[in-house]
Amino acid sequence: MNELLKFLNVAIRSRLDFELGKVDSLQKPQMNLHLNKEDALGKFIFEHQIQNQNLLLLVLALTPHVDPGFFNRIIQDYFPKGGEFPEFGGVKSKNHRGIIPTGETALYVLAGNDPNTRRQYFPIFQESELFKKGILYLEEVGRTDPEWSGALLMDSEYAELFTTGTVNKPKLGINFPAELIKTELEWEDLVLNSKTLDQIHEIEEWLKHEQQLMNDWGMGKRLKPGFRVMFFGPPGTGKTLTASLLGKYTKKDVYRIDLSMVTSKYIGETEKNISSLFDKAANKNWILFFDEADAVFGKRTNVRDAHDKYANQEVSYLLQRIENHPGLVILASNFKSNIDSAFTRRFQSIIEFPYPGSAERLSLWQKNIPLKAKLGKGIKLDLISKKYELTGANIVNVIQFACLKTLSKKKEIIEEEDLLLGIKKELLKEGKISN
């Protein structure tokens, strides 16, 4: 990092010397930097060939994280008596006492005070790959603020990577309404009918070959980015497990979105929350899983008042962000009929997760009973599978109940009465029998 700070120091001081009339020409900073390619920052710069203006932008945004007083020291050297220097830009935050560079800071270092030269650099905030990939961004400004006066900021995960060498996964919270979900299970543990499995494997194929299809084969000109899928079916039929397995076998993080944390009763807040979520997810190669999506994507209401009007606008905005998201988005619903048909037309695939048939139920019983457990002589799993219509989640709950009863008796053989009692509890819970 010291090499990069020296590079930035030369670039800024050279610009100040020239603009303040101390020298007749700009001194270009040394570009032959000797970076450690094993270091996270050096490796990133080398692999992505970050140089010239992009390198300057990257180092400008990173500097407050590693040297909080860097910009203050330079300005104090040139203006020891203090005073305003608006040309340099920069802002201060609530907690950080040093100068945080802005878009204006970047423009000053790149182009100085000449309006025509500065204008040539305006597109850099949209065209730079660092901005396109969400690594850098300009903070939004108020209506009365000039466009480039927003703070030049680095995505928190990249800042963490470049300063510590590692990145912690974002956690569910007010600022990030999504939870990382994982599974220890394998594809063999997922019991679905063949039609559903075939459709799932089509998604897996897209995840593995999307880059080649869009870039190498040129389909990016004809297809919208991303892939949108809807899972529908009763609870406990494997929708969440399927999403987790897709992530596991394609090495992508799966985040389950808590829609209750996204939506807000305050006008404009929902769109802000949605925007924050998708901005963070962009270019991260995540799978976004919207569970119980009918809560938001249900049939839109007739506009009776302002609340209905804004509710429909919020859904439309969410749908727009989903359509433009470059990764895989999965919406899960209990019933396909709950989702507005205007939404379902936007999906590449709609996959049903029906109640398992007797053959699938038998497989679920066999796969989930622990190897150490033994079944009592009277237990016939094939007959139980035909008689009781249970989901995979129901069956796991029954097995857990029966196993705990067995362990509490200090036995290894599961008794039929415990298994049947567990089944009864699940059927009562589902409302399929009365007490």
TrEMBL record:
Q: Does the keyword ATP-binding apply?
A: yes
- Can you tell me which residues the record assigns to a coiled coil? none
Query: What's a Gene Ontology MF term here?
Result: ATP binding
- Alphabetically list the UniProt keywords: ATP-binding, Nucleotide-binding
SMART domains the record matches? AAA
Concerning Pfam families, the annotation shows:
AAA (PF00004)
Protein family membership = Belongs to the AAA ATPase family.
Q: Which PANTHER family match?
A: 26S PROTEASOME REGULATORY SUBUNIT (PTHR23073)
The protein here is known as: AAA superfamily ATPase
CDD domains xref list: RecA-like_protease
Keyword Signal appears in the UniProt entry: no
The residues covered by the AAA+ ATPase domain are: 225-357
Q: Which InterPro entries match?
A: 26S_Proteasome_ATPase, AAA+_ATPase, ATPase_AAA_core, P-loop_NTPase
Gene3D superfamilies (UniProt xref): P-loop containing nucleotide triphosphate hydrolases
